[in-house]
Amino acid sequence: MRKVTSGLFHSLDGVVSDPFLWQFDSFDNELGKAMTGMMERVDTVVLGRVSYQEWAGYWPTAPQDQDFAGFINPVEKWVASRTLTEPLEWQNSHLIEGPLEEFVAALKQRDGGEIAVNGSISVVRQLLFAGLLDELTLITHPVVAGSGRHLFEPNDPTTRLSLEDQYKTAKGNVVSTYTLRDD
User: CA 97, 100, 106: angle at the middle one, nearest 5?
Assistant: First the structure.
C-alpha cells in the first residue's frame, strides 16, 4: 500500500500559510537536501484548489533548474475542488472525482511511490483526521510569523501522533516527522 505524506513549513507560533513571507532567511542546505529526499520518493501529489491555483500560476514558468520546479511540473497532480472544471491547464493535473477521502483511499491501493499532499492545509487536515495521512512532517523555522493560518484549530478532534524522527539543521530549523498512533 502506498503511503500518504505531507510536509509543511511551520513557524514557532504555529503558522503554516504563506511560508515565503517568513522562512527565507532560515532555509539552509540541510533543509534543501531533506526536501530533495522527500521529492525523490513521491510520484503523485494531491493539492487543494487554492494551492493548485497559486502554484499553477507560478511553477510552470519558473526556472526549470530549480529543484522544486523540476519535480512539481511533470509529477502527476490530483486536485480537490468543487469549483474548477476539466481540463486543468497545468500539465499532468486532474480533478478528483467524488469525495476526497474515498479517492485518496483508492489511490493508496494503486501501484506507485509516495503520495504527497503539498501545501493545501484543508486537505492535510481532512486526511489527517480521516486517518488517511500516514506521515506528517512539520519543518519548524525559528521565527514568529505573527499572523497566518494554523494547521490545527480550536475544537479539532483529539488526535494522537507518535514522533518518529526529529533533527535540527544548522540554521535552527527543527524537522519533526509524526505518524498517527494506533491507540
Answer: 80
Cβ-proximal residues to 90 (8 Å cutoff; 6+ apart), any chain: 52, 55, 56, 59, 60, 73, 77
Q: Which helix (H) or strand (E) holds 91?
A: none
For 31, other C-beta atoms within 10 Å of its C-beta total 19
State whether residue 53 is helix, strand or coil. helix
Taking the CA atoms of 129, 1, 82 and 149 in sequence, report the sign of the dihedral they define: positive
Domain boundary assignment for the chain: 4-180
Q: Which of 119, 71, 118, 121 is nearest to 92 (CA)?
A: 71
Can you tell me whether residue 127 is helix, strand or coil?
A: helix
Please report, for residues 41, 51, 151, the alpha-carbon distance to residue 122 in angstroms, rounded to integers and kept in the order given: 23, 10, 8
pLDDT score of 182: 79
The alpha-carbon radius of gyration of the chain (Å, integer) is: 16
The three-point CA angle 5-113-6 to 5° equals 10
Mean pLDDT of 2-9: 96
Which residues, at least 6 apart from 92, have a Cβ–Cβ distance to it below 8 Å?
A: 73, 74, 75, 76, 77
CATH code of domain 4-180: 3.40.430.10
Length reported for the chain: 183
In this prediction, residues 30-49 reach a mean pLDDT of: 92
